[in-house]
Design goal:
Elements (H helix, E strand, L loop, with lengths): L3 E12 L2 E12 L6 H29 L2
Antiparallel strand pairs: 1-2
């Protein structure tokens, strides 16, 4: 029996006069014998980093259009 863990991260920001919402969801199987707390922290960091990356890319794109 495998155990999985799933995290979702979401952030909304205003760029110029518009609001944008970014979201990422990651689900992974917890390896047998893994440090659960460490695995959970790494997954949380990964999903938050993905949302941050989306925000940075979108912000840079939208601000470069002027």
């Amino acid at each position: 029996m495998s155990n999985t863990i799933k995290f979702t991260s979401r952030a909304s920001i205003k760029i110029k006069d518009n609001f944008y919402t970014f979201e990422a969801c990651i689900e992974k199987t917890v390896p047998e014998g893994a440090d659960y707390e460490g695995f959970k922290k790494d997954l949380w960091d990964e999903v938050n980093d993905e949302v941050d990356r989306q925000i940075i890319e979108t912000r840079e794109f939208l601000l470069s259009k002027n």
